[in-house]
């Protein structure tokens, strides 16, 4: 069973609009949650990393939120640009383990 | 500039051949990882190494081998025993040996079996 579930699997948005991506996880005990952006054919690039005590973190037009109680995170993209077209991957780690649990990604396509 | 360099970017292999993917980092990171990415799936861990001359199997190590003779290098060999090797391979590194630090990825190597 995948420990990290992302939704929606894919979405298309108009340039300039906002969108929100969801990540639910079952990992325990939780250590941190990361969001990565992966352009097609490229390696993932870190957007944000949040620990248990953080409930929001921004990186430019990207804002991530974390609710450790409900084990949910969201990534909000403000005023989308064509360059935001990519896969956004949610990654969760837990204490006492050297592994990371990866979601399958949210595929975002921004159209003019 | 500091970063992770993977080569080659694209690689074609005939069935029965071994191939080696290169991963070099100049970030002075202790831990290095190899992941496999298939369409519609999350990244899966092949091997990881926390220190020189030591490495551990990940979730899908069968048909792969690695070495860690130098801190900055972590090559991955895809052997003929890997039954479905066509995939996108990503190398990553992080400072320290755990998973609390930021994970840096290379640009990936796409392997296609002909």
Q: Can you characterise this structure?
A:
The complex is a heterodimer of chains A (112) and B (114). Chain A is mainly beta. Chain A has strands at 4-7, 10-14, 19-25, 30-38, 45-51, 56-59, 62-67, 72-77, 86-94, 100-102, 106-111. In chain A, the strands form 2 sheets. In chain A, strands 2, 4, 5, 9, 10 and 11 form a 6-stranded mixed beta sheet that branches. A 5-stranded antiparallel beta sheet of chain A has the order 1-3-8-7-6, with no helix packed on it. Chain A is globular. The N and C termini of chain A lie far apart (37 Å). The model of chain A has no long low-confidence stretch (mean pLDDT 93). With 114 residues, chain B is mainly β. Helices cover 0% and strands 48% of the residues of chain B. Chain B has no helices and 11 strands. Chain B has strands at residues 4-7, 10-13, 19-25, 31-37, 44-51, 54-57, 64-66, 76-78, 87-94, 104-105, 109-113. In chain B, the strands form 2 sheets. In chain B, strands 2, 4, 5, 6, 9, 10 and 11 form a 7-stranded mixed beta sheet that branches. Chain B has a 4-stranded antiparallel beta sheet with strand order 1-3-8-7, with no helix packed on it. The interface between A and B is medium-sized, with 25 and 28 residues.
Provide keyphrases for this structure:
heterodimer, A: 112 residues, mainly beta, 6-stranded mixed beta sheet, 0% helix, B: mainly beta, 4-stranded antiparallel beta sheet, 11 strands
Give helix and strand order of chain A, one letter per element, not per position.
EEEEEEEEEEE
Overall form of chain B = globular
* SS strand fraction of chain A: over 45%
Mean pLDDT of chain B: 92
Q: Please report the two chains with the greatest interface, counting residues with C-beta closer than 8 angstroms to the partner's C-beta.
A: A-B, 25 and 28 residues
Q: Encode the helix/strand succession of chain B as letters.
A: EEEEEEEEEEE
Mind telling me the C-alpha Rg of chain A? Answer: 13 Å
Give the termini distance of chain B in whole angstroms.
Answer: 35 Å
* Residue fraction in strands of chain B: over 45%
- Could you say which structural class the secondary elements and strand pairing of chain A correspond to? mainly beta
Biggest β-sheet description of chain A: 6 strands, mixed
Number-wise, the strands of chain A total 11
């Amino acid at each position: 069973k995948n420990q990290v579930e992302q939704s929606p699997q894919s979405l298309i948005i108009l340039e300039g609009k906002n969108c929100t991506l969801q990540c639910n996880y079952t990992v325990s005990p939780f250590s941190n949650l990361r969001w990565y952006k992966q352009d097609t054919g490229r390696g993932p690039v870190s957007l944000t990393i949040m620990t248990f005590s953080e409930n929001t973190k921004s990186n430019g037009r990207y804002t991530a939120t974390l609710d450790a109680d409900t084990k949910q995170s969201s990534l909000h993209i403000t005023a989308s640009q064509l360059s935001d077209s990519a896969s956004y991957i949610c990654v969760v780690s837990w204490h006492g383990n050297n592994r990371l649990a990866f979601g399958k990604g949210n595929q975002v396509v921004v159209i003019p | 500039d500091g970063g992770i360099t993977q080569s080659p970017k694209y690689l074609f292999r005939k069935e029965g051949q071994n191939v080696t993917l290169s991963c070099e980092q100049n970030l002075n990171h202790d831990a290095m990882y190899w992941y496999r990415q298939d369409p519609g799936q999350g990244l899966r861990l092949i091997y990881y190494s926390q220190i020189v001359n030591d490495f551990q199997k990940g979730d899908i190590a069968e048909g792969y081998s690695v070495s860690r003779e130098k801190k900055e290098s972590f090559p991955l060999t895809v052997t003929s025993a890997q039954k479905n090797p066509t995939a996108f391979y990503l190398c990553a590194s992080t400072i320290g040996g755990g998973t609390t630090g930021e994970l840096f990825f290379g640009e990936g190597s796409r392997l296609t079996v002909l």
